[in-house]
C-alpha cells in the first residue's frame, strides 16, 4: 500500500493568498501619515457690521425718522393763538389740518430739536381737513405715503405734539372706517384707538413700515382718533386745484 | 521561510504604525497648541467685546438722555415762544385799548367843549342866527354821538 503523496505547491498557494489578503486589508486599515498643520486656519470672512436693528432710521443726533419728520405748528391769529402738528412729505412741504392753519396771521413751524423754520406759503383743501405748508428751510426728514389704506386691526403709530407739549409718539390699532361725524371730509375716515389730544391735529399716522397711512384730524368723545386716510391725502395732493392759498386774517 | 516573510512583514507594519502614531501625536500636539492660541485670542477678544459692549450700552444711555433733554428743551422753547406770542398779543391789545381810550377821551372832551360852547351861544340866543345855532347844535350832537359810539366800542372791547 502506497502512502498518499503531498503536493508541495498547495500550501504555498494558500499562503500566498493569505498574505495577499492580509497585506491588502492591512494597507486599507492602516492610517496614513497626517497632513501638515496649516499655518493659518482663520477663515477670511467679511468683518461684521455694527448696525443694530433700526439704526438705519437713526440720524447722527440719535432721533429716529419718525420723530424727525414731525413739526409743531403755531398759529398766530389776529386775536388768538393755537398750536397743532404736522409732518413733512418732501424737503419743503408739510401736511397738516385745515383747521390748524385757519384764521392765522402767521404760521410758525418748529422741528423736533427746536429749530424754527420759515414758512413761505400755505394752502388749504376745501373737500378735506387738510392743508399744505411750504417752508423756505429744508425739513429734516420725510416719510413715504403708504400705497394702500390700512386694514382693520393694523398697527398705527401717531407722532405729534398733543396739547402743544413735547413731541410724543403713541401707538394703537385701526378699528375701522366711518363717515366723518364732523362733515369736514368727503368719503370715509379711519378710526383708531391711538390716543390723541387737542394739538395732535395734523399728526402723521404711520404703519409698521413707517409709511403714512393717514392724518389725525379729530378725537371722538369716547377717546378714539379720527384720521384722514392716505387715499384722500393722495387724491388731494394729486389734484393741484384741490388747494387754495391761505389768506391771512 | 513563510514565517520569516511574515515576521519581516509584521516588523515593517509595526515600524510603519509606530511612525504613523508618532506623526499623528505630533500633529495633534500642533493642533492643540494652535487651538490654545486661538482660545487665548478668543478670550482676549471676548473681554474686549464685553468692554466695548458696556461702552456701547453706556453711550446709548447717554444718547437717550441727550435726546430726551433735546426734546425737553425744544418743548421749553416752544412754550416760551407761545408765552411770548400771547404776551405780544396782550400788549397789542393793551396798546389798542389805550389808543382807543385816548381817542374816546379826546372825543368826549371835544364833545363837552362843544356843548359848553353851545350853551354859551344859547344863553345869548338873540345875538345869533337861529339857523346857525341849529346847525351848530346838530354838529355838536353828531360830535357827541361819535364820542359816545367810540366809548361804547371801547367798553365792548374791555368787556371781552
UniProtKB/TrEMBL annotation, chain A:
Q: Pfam families from the entry?
A: Trypsin_2
Species of the source: Isoptericola halotolerans
Q: Where is the signal peptide?
A: 1-28
Q: Which protein, by its recorded name, is this?
A: Trypsin-like peptidase
- Gene3D superfamilies from the xrefs? 2.40.10.120
Is ATP-binding a UniProt keyword of this protein? no
InterPro entries xrefs: Peptidase_S1_PA, Peptidase_S1C
Alphabetized UniProt keyword annotations: Signal
What residue ranges carry the coiled-coil annotation? none
- Give a yes or no for keyword Protease in this entry: no
Automatic annotation (TrEMBL), chain B:
Q: Which UniProt keywords apply?
A: Coiled coil
Highest taxon of source: Bacteria
Give coiled-coil spans as residue ranges.
28-83, 133-160
Quote the protein name from its UniProt record: Uncharacterized protein
